[in-house]
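User: Please fill in residues for this 261-position structure.
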């Protein structure tokens, strides 16, 4: 298919360009930055008119306005976004589908360093166009597709992304505030510490703008962060106030939550 990747010169945009080109699709890129590997489209209206698939691969905060521009051009092709947070887009996505346009929303649950889509999770959010949803599924054949209504996405991401990121950020911030050099801690590291450090280090090296927007633009993150804060408060009380029963209960309930041994 003829594809227009808006934001195709960014890291995830480049991943999409390479992925879809490898599957035989014809790629053009619309972006402020030049793309050294794929042809550029300089006229958005022409690019949207000629494309059978239009994919928005931009920062979350920039996507709503671009989505409105694209939909105002009445595209005949399918329009997809890949943002990590959907709340800023829901109104435009639903309106576009209600107006007869082929609109869908995707969220690849991996980053641009991923080598293969096989067995990787990709969320497809239904926005009102069954045709767009089916095409989206066909484009990512081989992945593990999780399908849901677009309004269901962000409450789930508050825990899958927002809480997961926050725990790691809090961990490395607590280490930094300790005043102890990391190498000193690492020399005495346990297996658990090293596993947590591996996860936290990966988060620390990620795109700070993206991670801020994932925290800031998801209105459901507040509840997740409040649960985290209360959990830390309960842990402090159980551990520091000689409450073995409460501490053991937290451990037991956690084990049960994960399905037991």
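Assistant: Residues filled in for all 261 positions:
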């Amino acid at each position: 298919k003829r594809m227009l990747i808006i934001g195709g010169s960014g890291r995830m945009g480049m991943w999409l360009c390479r992925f879809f080109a490898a599957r035989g699709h014809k790629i053009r890129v619309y972006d402020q930055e030049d793309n050294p590997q794929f042809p550029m489209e300089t006229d958005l209206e022409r690019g949207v008119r000629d494309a059978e698939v239009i994919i928005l691969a931009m920062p979350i905060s920039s996507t709503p306005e671009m989505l409105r521009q694209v939909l105002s051009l009445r595209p005949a092709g399918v329009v997809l976004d890949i943002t990590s947070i959907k709340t800023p887009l829901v109104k435009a996505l639903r309106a576009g589908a209600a107006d007869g346009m082929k609109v869908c929303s995707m969220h690849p649950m991996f980053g641009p360093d991923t080598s293969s889509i096989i067995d990787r999770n990709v969320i497809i959010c239904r926005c009102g166009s069954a045709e767009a949803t089916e095409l989206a599924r066909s484009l990512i054949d081989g992945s593990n597709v999780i399908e849901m209504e677009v309004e269901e996405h962000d409450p789930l991401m508050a825990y899958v992304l927002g809480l997961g990121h926050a725990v790691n950020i809090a961990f490395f911030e607590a280490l930094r505030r300790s005043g102890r050099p990391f190498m000193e801690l690492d020399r005495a590291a346990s297996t658990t510490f090293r596993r947590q450090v591996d996860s936290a280090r990966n988060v620390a090296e990620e795109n700070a703008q993206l991670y801020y927007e994932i925290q800031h633009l998801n209105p459901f993150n507040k509840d997740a962060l409040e649960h985290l804060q209360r959990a830390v408060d309960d842990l402090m009380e159980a551990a520091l106030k000689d409450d073995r029963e409460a501490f053991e209960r937290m451990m037991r309930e956690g084990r049960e939550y994960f399905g037991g041994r």
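For context: The CA atoms of residues 64 and 91 lie 10 Å apart.
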